[in-house]
Amino acid sequence: MNHKKLLELALRKGGDFADLYLEQSLFHEIILRDGTVNAAGTNTDGGLGIRVVKGQNTGYAYTESSLASDLEKAAKTASYIASGKVASIVPAAITTLNLPDRYPILTPWDSFSPQKKMPYLYELNDLIFGADKRVKKVTARLADSTSRIEYFNSLGIHCTDTRPLASLTVSCIMEENGRRETASASRSFKMGAEFLNTDIIRELAREAVSRTAFLFLAGQPQGGEMPVVMSAGSSGILLHEAIGHAFEADFVRKNTSIFSDKMGKRICRQGISVVDDGTIPGNRGALNVDDEGVPAQKTYMVTDGILTSFLHDRISARYFNVSPTGNGRRESFRHMPLPRMRATYMENGTDSTESLIASVKKGLYVDTFSNGQVQIGAGDFTFYVKSGFLIENGKLTQPVKDTNIIGNGPGALGMITGVGNDCLIDNGTWTCGKEQSCEVSCGMPSVLISSLTVGGRL
Amino acid sequence: MNGKKWLEQTCRYALESSLRKGAGQVRVTAVRDVSNGLTVLNDSLEKIQSAVESSLMIGFFTEGRYGSCSTNSTDPAQIDKLIDQALASVRLLATDPCRTLVPASIRYNGPPSQMAHKGEISTGEKKSLLFECAAGVLGKELSLISVTADYSDYRRRVQLMDSTGLDCTSEETWYSLSAECAVKGEGDTRPSDWEYSAGFLPSAVGLGSGIPSDYALRALHRALAKRNPGKIRSGRYHAVVENRVASTLLGPVIQAVSGSSLQQQNSFLLGKLEQTVASPVLTLIDDPHRKGYPGYRLFDPEGMATLRRTVIEQGKLNTYFLNTYYANKLKMQPTISSPSLLTMPGGKGNALSLAGSVKNGIFVTGFNGGNCNTATGDFSYGIEGFRVENGQITKPVNEMVMTGNMLDLWKKLVTTGDDALKTTAWQIPSLLFDNIEFAGL
């Protein structure tokens, strides 16, 4: 591939910036169902995405072909976002970035056959069936991928990145007196086949069984406004939905985020800091470099209660005249990059979980979640609670399940009245679906929010 | 090579190569998509996107075992290498006698499925459509923050073959246009809303009609109506669910009658065949042969011929959606892998007329998150919409949650409208439910 020629073609109509994103990915999966590993899949995918930026506007084309004529045609197509007759930018000489390796691959997935993977799924199946006689069905899916990225842009930046991703998800169905319940557990890391070990299998088996068994004791809570204590770990979905999306600078640039006018202002109480971090080794949201050649970093969005940074791609960074934050991400070469989160979490506070619970007379404690959503402009966010407990007079009492919680981003932030000292990153298979699919993670210490609307029975 | 010829040759090559390598039985699907997209933000072209893409999927039914592989490579050497790797993996798996190709008696044997526009639309025409659409609101409302108009189209060709003689093809085009407006609300809020249209002909989005689209204007009016919302007291209310979001409530029902949920005993409708599961008002039909609408198809991804089916008849559950695998697993007859084009006939009126009959209710115009436990049917969804009092829409509501159980919900269906949108494969009209639990203040 003649990258210089392609960049020149892409800029021929007067574009300000152009980049090339070359990807080759290999995916595998095996599935255990009804006690046997009886399905396997292999997928290869690859191509080149060519982007041209003119001001805030983007031309994008991609091709799966490696023929020079097809690559050049894609470059010309993308160039049409600009309407000039000649190029105004000449691609700079290429310099290759030196990047850290936050996801070293000890055992490449390419060399790890299904034969070596299958015993882990059988062990998982046996542990779950052995743990509880009510277990009726177990389904487990092990997926791995390795993506090799090569990137060039007209600023002269060149980099390569090899990104492994491993995910193991297990679902369990139990039956008791004709009633069935189901729950699942998952782990995901950017790492090679060393991901598979006995500890992770035991953890997942224990979680799947305990989560499913719990549901037989639980019911939907009484609905209404009440204080909510979010447990450490996967409660980070609150940050992702309630504020993270609204901090993505494409929404801010278009003035459609509820936080558009809040830069430098206090948005929650002192002592609260929220980061989006691409530097956690092996984390599902970790990156060496984002998808537009910006090295990943740890970005403080909220520092001691003050909004200090949005999450930028190159377009928004240029618009706001700040440095990009390494959040320009894309699902694949088929997609143009957008500001996206990586691992989003709140830093530790000083309260203990026990003291947060003890401070609530009547409310809810929530600890596992399945999904969430936000309306960027209105600020209303939701997250779905798979399990938790009522809090009555400072103590956890009745188990609860299957309820949606809804709040408003700025309002909920302002109502965080306690932050625990037990921050935990959740390593489940979190996937963000903003226009494209992107792997992320989230985390949080235990947090008390003085009022949210809890869905439930009357 | 044109797309049609490429599909046929690629399919045949993959099929023959797999058989040569000892695959036993094989099913091959090749897809070629040509797509375009443009976005106008306010008064400038924000994005243009264009792509030609291919995919090849091969399912192996080898020595009683099943596996699959897929690629977007068109290089025969790469395809051969992938088949070798995939077959090596398949041979390590446990046997599964329930994995079979579609029986010849129920597979599709008819002519190509065709729902495609013949001509091409120029980029200039598409741009004009979008700029005209956005111009419909620019400068006409002080509180307007932004208007985004999106256009996309694709032409998709599919070829499906298997080693027992299945050979079917389809071609479809699809054109869509949407507009979204964000407006200044109370405080820092910026409520937004959208309008959308689509169809297999360019005229579905106004191309060639010469009439400027009013989607942006309609989106603007919707966004303006959402300003300054609030919660209302928790309680039981009538719920009018607008046509464009009503399928959210049907989703868990369809999932519960799918083979995978039933076979894994993860379904609140397990064992409910031939039983009453909903109000007698509910009749749900899968009507795949209504040409011109999304969801139209003559065969499913296995090559099974589609048929018109009454899924629920006056509240009684008539059928499950079973592909070959899950039908074999459950020792039942296969039906079809999934619904194609769902309709809910027999209703009358639209969302506003349904709301007009309600004394004390909530008009749900959007769902915000939520989920349903497929094993039990317990659900909880965030909602937005409007308060309905004495048949009048009075004020916008938000930050409320609708909670219940699916079996109970559908038994509370009072009536349905006849206003289903024709732009989605699930053509569900506005619905009126009685006595639904909402949590708010």
Would you write up a description of this structure?
- The complex is a heterodimer of chains A (458) and B (441).
- Chain A contains 9 helices and 23 strands.
- By secondary structure, chain A is of the alpha+beta class.
- In chain A, strands 1, 2, 3, 4, 5, 6 and 7 form a 7-stranded mixed beta sheet that branches. In chain A, strands 11-10-9-14-22-19 form a 6-stranded mixed beta sheet, with helices on one face. Chain A has a 5-stranded mixed barrel with strand order 8-15-16-17-23.
- The longest helix of chain A is centred in the middle third of the chain and has 20 residues.
- Chain B is an alpha+beta fold and 441 residues long.
- Helices cover 21% and strands 37% of the residues of chain B.
- Chain B contains 9 helices and 18 strands.
- In chain B, the strands form 3 sheets. In chain B, strands 1, 2, 3, 4, 5, 6 and 7 form a 7-stranded mixed beta sheet that branches. A 5-stranded mixed beta barrel of chain B has the order 8-13-14-15-18. In chain B, strands 11-10-9-12-17 form a 5-stranded mixed beta sheet, with no helix packed on it.
- The longest helix of chain B is centred in the first third of the chain and has 18 residues.
- At the A-B interface, strand 1, strand 2, strand 3, helix 2 and helix 3 of A face strand 2, strand 3, helix 2, strand 13 and strand 14 of B.
- Strand 2 of chain A pairs parallel with strand 3 of chain B.
List the helices and strands and how they pair.
The complex is a heterodimer of chains A (458) and B (441).
Chain A: H1 3-10, E1 17-33, E2 36-54, E3 57-63, H2 68-79, E4 95-96, H3 114-131, E5 135-153, E6 157-176, E7 179-189, H4 198-217, E8 224-230, H5 237-247, H6 249-253, E9 274-277, E10 298-303, E11 306-307, H7 314-320, E12 328-329, E13 338-339, E14 343-346, H8 353-358, E15 362-374, E16 380-392, E17 395-408, H9 409-414, E18 416-419, E19 424-426, E20 431-432, E21 438-439, E22 441-444, E23 447-454
Helix pairs in contact in A: 1-2, 3-4
Chain B: H1 3-20, E1 25-41, E2 44-62, E3 65-71, H2 76-90, E4 113-115, H3 123-135, E5 144-162, E6 167-183, E7 192-199, H4 215-225, E8 235-241, H5 247-256, H6 259-263, E9 284-286, E10 309-313, E11 316-317, H7 324-330, E12 342-343, H8 351-356, E13 360-372, E14 378-389, E15 392-405, H9 406-411, E16 413-416, E17 426-427, E18 431-439
Parallel strand pairs in B: 4-6, 8-13, 12-17
Antiparallel strand pairs in B: 1-2, 1-5, 2-3, 5-6, 6-7, 8-18, 9-10, 9-12, 10-11, 13-14, 14-15, 15-18, 16-18
Helix pairs in contact in B: 1-2
